[in-house]
Amino acid sequence: MLGSSLDSSQLWEALYQTLLMVSISLVIGALIGIPLGILLVVTKKNGIWENVAVYHILNPIINIFRSIPFIILLIAIVPFTKLIVGTSIGTAAAIVPLTVYVAPYIARLVENSLLEVDSGVIEAAHAMGASPFQIIRYFLMPEALGSLILAITTAIIGLIGSTAMAGAVGGGGIGDLALAYGYQRFDTIVIVITVVILVIMVQLIQSLGNVLAKKIRRN
C-alpha cells in the first residue's frame, strides 16, 4: 500500500494510462499539426508557396480550436468522441479530445519555429533553384529542427497537464487517480504521490528535450 486507499498496482496502471494517452495523442496530433504548421508558413503572404485563400482558411480555424480551454473541449466534442471510439469515458475516449487539443497547438508551435529560420537560408535555396518542396525538406525543416524539438517538448508537457484534467470525466490516468482517491476520499498521501509523479515526468521530458535541441543546434 502506498497510501491509506491506494495500491501500487493501481498507481502503475494509472501511469501506464497516462503514458498511453500522451504517446498516442502526440503521434496523431503531430501527424496533423506539423503539416498544418508548415502550411501556415509557406502559404502566408510572401511565403514560398503563397496561397492567401488557404492561409485565411487555416489560420482562423486553428485559432478557434486553440482558444477553447481543454476541459470545455473535452465536453463539447463528446458526440464526436462517441462516434470515433464508441464511448466518452475511459482512456481510449480521452485520446480523441487530447488529439483535437494538441494538433492545433503543435501547428502554432511549428509555425513559430519555422518563422525563426533566417530568411537568408530561404533566399539561398531559391537562388539554387530549389522547388518549394525541396526548400521545406532540405532547408526549412533542418534549420528549424532544434526549435521544433523544443516545440514538441512543450506539446508533450501540455498533454501531460491535459491528461490530468481528463481525469475529471473518467479519462483514466494519474489525474483520475488523484481525483478518485486523493480528492474524493480526502487522501493527502495520494495527492502528494500523483503530484510528485507528474513533476518528475515533466522535468525528465523537459531535460531530454533541452539536451536534444542543444545537441542538434551545435551540429
Automatic annotation (TrEMBL):
Keywords, sorted A to Z: Cell membrane, Ion transport, Membrane, Nickel, Nickel transport, Transmembrane, Transmembrane helix, Transport
Primary location recorded for the protein, binned into one broad class: membrane
Please give the GO cellular component terms listed in this UniProt entry. plasma membrane
> SUPFAM superfamilies given for it?
MetI-like
Q: Name one GO biological process term.
A: nickel cation transport
Record's subcellular location = Cell membrane
This chain belongs to the protein called Methionine ABC transporter permease
Q: To which species is this protein native?
A: Staphylococcus carnosus
